[in-house]
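WARN retry 2 of 3 for item q-0093 after timeout on previous attempt; input resubmitted unchanged.
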Amino acid sequence: MKRQYLAAWVLLLLLPMTNITMVFAKQHSSHLNKQFEVALRTEQSNLSQSQLSQKTDFEHESTDLIANVLYRRLSGLYRTMMPNGANGANVLWLHNQARHWYIEEQRSGEELIIGGLIKNDPQAIEAGFKMFDWGFAHQVDDGSFSMTGDNFHSTSFFVQSVAHTLLVIQQSPYSEKYADQVAKYKPLVHRAARWMIEPNIWKIGIRRNKPYTHRRYLVAAALGLTGKLTGDQELIQYAHKSIEDGLSLQRPDGVNPEKNGHDCSYQMVGMIYAQRWVTYFPQDTITPKVVAMINKSLLWEQTRILPSGEISTEGNTRTAGEEKGRSGKVKGIDRKTALRGFAYWASVTGNQKWEESARQIARFYYKMP
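OK item q-0093 returned
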């Protein structure tokens, strides 16, 4: 009898807590739905009318929130790097604690070098070049990276990061200082990009990318920026194909689907790469459609931002505990990507509503005033 009495008492105590949880969930969903309806009422004709800035990519990367929030602690990006330049999951692989190495893990060199240029941090720049060097030390004659896991996708990450970095170096005040590094890496990244468009490689890679919309814009940035860097028009043509495929997948509500659903973290990953296309190909015939896609995507993303600035993972197909990254950790919201996507687009368009969203995110995740 005492046990039954105790169980009943515990149940009575828990019932109010359950009701509170249910009310919170309903309020949470209601808030998102209300925001979503407001975003949908925005006239589509206004979405493609943004006046694009004439600033360089280096100048966009130097905008306040990117420079002073995302690039403020560069040392954290190379603290776990090995002296030889191996980074991330590749450190585990070298220590026989992982089955595969991934060339994409070396892409942090991009953030180190660009951030180092902006913050005048030679140590960060040197660490970034070490990461690139370790990656290219594993490149073979056909341009691929020997035995890397997930070869097409992982290579596309690394190619994008290197090509983007070299273009930004050329726009920076340090272009002459690092001209030798640009000359060194340019043929190497070009060879990797050419490998990506080999017919058999391309066919298999695109098929494996099918469930993930963001990968269309990643591939487009990797090939497009390498084409811009090297003058290779065929790479730019392949980038066009990838963008057209991505544009065809966007849903009426602005979602770029990932695994047949929405994912607010990967939505922003795709936006970053699409934004780079706009910056480097502002006069391209497909760019107005990319601009409209980005605006529509960001409108949807705004509906995921709670009043506190936290980004809701409700309904995410990939980053609400569903997947693990290369290091084995469960994937969550990439707050850096979310902030960058809004802050960068505010610089490109001059539209303050994107800046406000970036600051809202910064206040929650980075405790910025």
